[in-house]
Amino acid sequence: MGDDNTADIAGELPxxxxxxxxxxxxxxxxxxxxxxxAYDPAxxxxxxxxxxxxxxxxxxxxxxxxxxxxYLHKEYIKLSNRSMNIPGHPVPKKEGEHCTTIMDANFTLxxxxxxxxxxxxxxxxxxxxxxxxxxxxxxxxxxxxxxxIGGDSCRMEDVLCAAAEDIFMQDEYMFAGMRPTYVKSAQxxxxxxxxxxxxxxxxxxHALLDRGNPERLELVLGDIAKEWKKFFEPGKNITVYNVxxxxxxxxxxxxxxxxxxxxxxDKTHGKGTPKYKFNYIRIPRPxxxxxxxxxxxxxxxxxxxxxxxxxxxGKSARVAKKL
Length: 323
What we know:
Strand order of the largest sheet: 1-2
Order of helices and strands: HHHEEHHHHHHHHH
């Protein structure tokens, strides 16, 4: 019943850049968002006193959300269509609607306020882009689960790649050599990326790390790490991404947790499981003292002098032999 809907959505989208040996981006039909300017103190992400229930990401009914996340919307439809064919699974009441509860993941639940013990530790509100996307991606990963490790892995992989494709979506230009620009602003990219990173760490993605396609995962994880590395450059979180220092430190903790998770797969999933690099921050080389630098220069000079002498001695020996 849902195959036609999926085909219609797929027909409007360029291929996902994370398909194996493909790198085709593009701006989906209907996407109107343009990058915003940099630092704006009025909209900088920070904690406030507000802590009321918030609206979830209504990808099942809100067309503006569907246009904003076209690749994730496509994956959501696929998961919904699949769940309709599972005996005993609730189906939509009206023809053409999609499931809002998939494999125990309820996409309509309001975002619960943070607990009194959590609120002081979280540098953003529960109705922020960060938390809204975090909860949505948790639901998407959960909706992929059915107990079959291989099938769960394939679905999680598609969902992860769709999320990255939507976050890093770029304009497509007609002329070769023109530099593409991101459709979403730097603040939008990094806040949704933090929500995704939180969901990856909290869900743990056991099936994906156990059976995922290493070539595809290396590509998408590399793009995620590259954006984080730009963000963690000193001062960039405010001047470029319009995000507070508290959020920066919060993000660093989650990126560190994700890095540990990705490089510890042999311990959590058994020997032979692929490990993944996640170099999310640039580690500067330790400063060297003037004395050490002077010593290195002296050593290089002495090595060059010795090398020159050896060359001269070799020439002299060859000349003497001819005589």
